[in-house]
Every structure is written in structure tokens, then in C-alpha cells.
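Re: the 220-residue chain
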Amino acid sequence: MDTSAHDPGDVTFDFRELSARDKYKLLIGTVVPRPIALVTTVDPQGRINAAPFSFFNCLSADPPILALGVENHPDMRFKDTGLNIRLTEVFTVNIVSHAIAEAMHVCAVPFAPEHDELKAAGLTAMPGKTVASPWIKEAPAAFECRRHITLELGKSRQIIMGEILFAHYHADVVDAERLRIDPARLDAIARLGGSTCATIRDRFDMETPTLDDYWSQRQS
């Protein structure tokens, strides 16, 4: 029995009783902002595919692991990204800056597999250094990945984890000696709920306090 007190204005949802679509709507509107991965892959014939995914994040630094949430088509066919990774074992994650946001949006159009999304979006495919999939010249940062493991969640979604093998940065984005990324130069965008996106241009710093700092603040 749930004996917790609720404010009279609270609205609650039992996720066990919601449809998949309703759960999706609540999650994408609440777990924000979500970074956008513009993922490039190639099929066994060498045809390039590019598609954006906002169920994306980094999970580990050692080993360096990125994760993608890739949903199947409604009829359960694999999307091109998921199928290409399954067949080739590699992919490249390109970070989406504000400058290429509209081009990223073009890559979301459901083109046929033989249609090159990068050409349609006016983006430049550059040959990978360690993997067959290209990286995007206009992206401020890109990670070449080898598939590490795939988790099948039910019948409709895969969580694909990739180990980063190689990284590309625009020269003005990273301090190569200190390994510091300039967030203003990266100028990444993120997904909110529905069609709404956001920039990371409003920023503030919060230093993690030491234990001594915490008790000092409590006593002041």
C-alpha cells in the first residue's frame, strides 16, 4: 500500500497501465534535455545512412562507451541504423551543433535505404580512420565506434552500446593540451518534448562541495 503523502495538486501515473505511446510522451517531456546523436552508418554495399537519435548518452569512460536507443519500424523491421550496425558492427556518432540543426532535421526524413541523407542535407561525409562509417565534416565533434553489445528490450527497441575508437573535433572546440571542451564552440543542441529543441547557451557553474564545505555551510 502506498502510504506516502501527496500534495493535493499532484498528478500521478501508473506506468503499468499506460500505453507505449503515453509512456513515451511523458518520458520525452520529462527526461530533458537529451543530447542528439546524428549517427552515420554504412550498409554491406557501402551505402551511407545518417539518422538522428535523442535516446543517446555516454555511459562509461573506461571503457569509453556510448549508448543509442534505436526503435524498430511499426512492423518490427529494423531501421537502417540498427540493421547496418548489426551487419557491420560499426557506427559513428556526430554531435549536432546549432549550425547543423536544420541539416540534422533533413536526415530524419524517412528516405529509402539507397537515398544518401548526407547529400540531401548538404553535409560532407569524411572517411573514417578506424571504422568504415564516415564522420561528418560539419559536426563539431564525432566519435567512431565499434559495437560493444546490443540489448534487446522487448520486440521493438534495441539499446546499442558502442566503444569509442577514435574522435574528431573542430580545432576551436577543444584545448588539445588540457582536453577541455569549449561549450560555446561546441554549441550543441538537445531535444525536449515533442518537436521542441534547446541550446546549451545559458550556463552556470556548480562546484561539488567537499565534506568540510558541506558541514561549514550547515553551521553558518
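The mean pLDDT is 91.
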